[in-house]
Amino acid sequence: METAATTPPPARSTDPGPTRGAPPATAPQPQLALELLVHGVGGTTPQEMLGDPRVQRISGDDTAACYRRTDDADAEQRPDDYRTEPVREAYCWSNLTSGNGARALWLILLPFMVANLAHWMRPDAPPDHRGQRIYDLLVRLLALTLTVLLAAAACEVALDLSAWQCAGTPVCVTGKSWLGFLNPAGGGWWSTPGRRLVLASLLPLLVVGFLWWLSHRTWSAYESASPPPRRPGASRDTPAHERTALGLDGFWYGRRLVARLRAAHSAAGVLTLAAALLVASLRADSRAGATALTAVGRTLTGLVLLLAAGTLVIVWRTARSEAARDEETDRLAVRALPYAALAVLALTAGYAAWARPAARSHGPLPGVAAFGGIAVCQSVLVLALVVTAWFLQRAARDETRTALRGMGGPAVALLSCAVAGVLSGGVAQRFADWIDGPATPGQDHAPIPGPPVVLSWQASVLPALLVVVAAVAVLAGVRVLAVRKRVARDVPGLYDPRERPDVLRTERIAGTIARAGLTDAAPVLVAAIAAVTLVLGAGAVAGAWLTDRAPGRATEGAAPFVHAAAETAESLGSWLMGAGVILLLTMGRRAYRDHSARRTIGILWDVGTFWPRAAHPFAPPCYAERAVPDLTWRMATWTEQYDGRLVISGHSQGSVLAAAAVWQLDLVTRSRVALLTYGSPLERLYGRWFPAYFGPPALTGLHREMDDWRNLWRFTDPIGGPILLSCEDGRAVDEGPLRDPLAFGRTLQNPLPAQILGHGDYQADPVFDRVRAELLARLGPGIPAQRTNCTGSQASSGRSSA
C-alpha cells in the first residue's frame, strides 16, 4: 500500500571550516539541524528510510527506536561537518502494530476497534457542551453490549448447541466421541443437564480470560509511556486551558481508564456466563417445585444483578481525564469486581451441578431470547447517539467539512454492532451445521433446534445488505469512468508541450486520479450500509419475536415464491456469515507464515488503532500512546540539549503521529520545530471523520503556534490531500498538487516511462528537497515569532475540481 522514501542523503559538505588563524572568539558557531523522519502505514526499515545499509540505533528498543546512518551517529560532536545539510534520523514504529505474526489474531477484535473509533468521531462542539458527556457515555454502554454479545455467543456454542442440545439428544451425540461421556443414555456423572452446562462453561470462561489477559498485557506495554514533564510557571509550560485536546498531558496516557474498563468488561463477561447457568437451573427447580433450590437460585440471581449494577456504575463513571496524567490507584471495589464475579460464577456452578435426577434438556437453552434483547438495546443506544450527535453538530464550531454532517460516530457505532452480529451469528450457524451432520438445524426431522431464531433472521438480511454494497460499488465505478474522461482532457497540459501525447498514458494517469478520488466518496458507502443495516436489523428482530420458528417455516402458507425466497435468503445469509468468520481466521493463519499478509493486516491496525482505548478495553492497543511520547521526548530533549533546528518529516500515518507529537510540545520548543508532511490524511480523513480533534480550528491553531508547516500532496494519492490552511503573510501550508508522474512521455532525460508514484516516494520529487531547505532556512538562531491570522480555507480542494 505504501512505499518507503528511499532517496539517499545528499553528499556531505567538504567545507574546511574557519581558517586556523582566525580568532576563536569571532568564529561563527555552527548550528545543527535535525530531520526526524517518521514512516507511514505498513512500516519500513531504517535502511530504506535513510538510504544506507549501515545504520545504528540511537535511542529506543526493538519495538520502536530512532536510527541514524553509522557515519552520522556522532554528528553532535562534529557540527562543522553539517553546515549545509541536516542530520537525518529515522523513527521506526512498525513493530508496534505489524511486527509480530500473532497480532494477526487481533482481527477477531474488529468490532471492539470499530466501536472505539466511534468515541472519537464526535462533532466539534465546545468542550463544555452537555452533550459531550452523554455522547461518551452512550458509546461506552454500547461497547459494553458488545462484550456481553461476545460472551453470549460463546455460551451459545458451548452451552446451548453442545452441552444442552446435542449432548442431550441421543441421535446427535451418537458418533461424537468427544461428547460421548455426556450422553444421558450412559448415565454418567456428567450426563445431567446442569453438570453438562457447568463443564461446557469452561470454554466461555477461557474466552473472557484470554481477552482480559491480552488487554492487560498490551496495557502494560502501550498505555504506560508518559509525556515529558512540564514545570508549572516556567517558560516551557503551557497552561491547560490554552492547549487543544491533543496537547493535553493526559491525552496519550490512558493507563487508569483502560484498567477500570477492563475490570468492568471482564466482570460483564463472567456475569453473562453465570446468568446462562442460572436461567436453565432455576427454571428446572421452579417447575419441579424444589423450594430450597429455588431460593438458592433467586439469591444467586440477586447477586448477579447486584454485580451487574456495579459494572454499569463503573462504566458510567469512567470518563477520560485528559488535562493531566491520571495516575491514581483505583478503589478496591473496582479492582475486586472481576474476582467477585468469578466467586458468584463458582457458586452458580455449584448450584447448577446439584443432582436433579428428573431434569431433562429439550429444545433450545432457556434464555436464548437474550440475543434479541441485546439487539434491541444496541438499537436504542445507536438512536440515542444519533440524537446526541445532532445536537452536538448544531453547536459545532465548524461543520462544513465534517463527514456525514456529524453522523459519522453513530454510523460507525452501528457498523460495530453489525460486525459483532455477523461474527457471533456466523460462528453459531456454522457450528450448528457441523455438529448436526447432514441435517439442517431447526428444520423438520433435524435432531436439534439449532441457534436462536433471531440469528437466522439476521442471516437472512445479509444478502440484501450485500446487494446495497454492490450497488454502491457499481455507482463508484461509473463515477470513476466519468471523472477519468473529464480529467483526461487536462492531463497533457500539465507537462512540457514538446513531449508527444500518448493516449494510453493519458488514460492511465487520469484513471489513477479518478480512483484516488474514491476516498472522498467513503461517507456515501458508510451511510448506505448503516441505513440499510438499521432498517433490516430492526426487521430481523421484529420477525424473530413474531415467531418461534425459523424464517423458512414462518412463511408457510405464503406464496411459493415468497417461501422459496425466504429459505434462500436464510441459507445464503447463513453461509455468508460463516464465510466471514472463516475469512478472518484464514487471514490470521496466513499472517503467521506470510510476511506480506502480515504487513497488509498491520496496515488495517495502523489506521484503526491510532486512537486510545477510550470505549472498549478489549480493542487492539493504541500504538500512538507509545509513538507520540517517543517523538515528543526526542524533539524536546534534542532541541534543549543542542539548541538546534529540527524538521519533523512525516509520511502518511507518520504525518498524523508527527502532528500529534508537535501538539504535545510546549510553545518554546514548538517554535524551534518545523513540520513537513506529505501524503498526509490529516485533513482529508482525520479532519473530516474526527473533527473535534483534527478539524479546521485545531489545525489552524497548530499552524499558528509553530514556526512553519508545509504539506506536499498529489492528485494521484488515494490517502493524502491538502490541509487547506493559509496565513495573511501569503505563506500557505500546501505545496501542490505535485506532478505525478514526473515525466509524461519518453524524452532524452527520461528514456523510460516514469512511474506513477501515487501515495509513495514523495522524496523522489525535487520539490521535496526545496521545501525542506526552506523550512531549515526559516529556523534561525533566534526564536521565531508566532504567526497570527492563520485561517482554514473552506473552499473545495483542487482534487474535486480535477
From TrEMBL:
Positions of the UniProt region annotated as Disordered: 1-31
Record protein name field: Lipase family protein
Top-level taxon in the UniProt lineage: Bacteria
Annotated transmembrane regions: 134-154, 197-214, 263-283, 295-316, 336-355, 367-392, 412-432, 461-482, 524-546, 572-592
Entries under SUPFAM superfamilies matching the protein: alpha/beta-Hydrolases
InterPro entries assigned: AB_hydrolase_fold
Residue ranges with Low complexity bias: 16-31
Alphabetical keyword list: Membrane, Transmembrane, Transmembrane helix
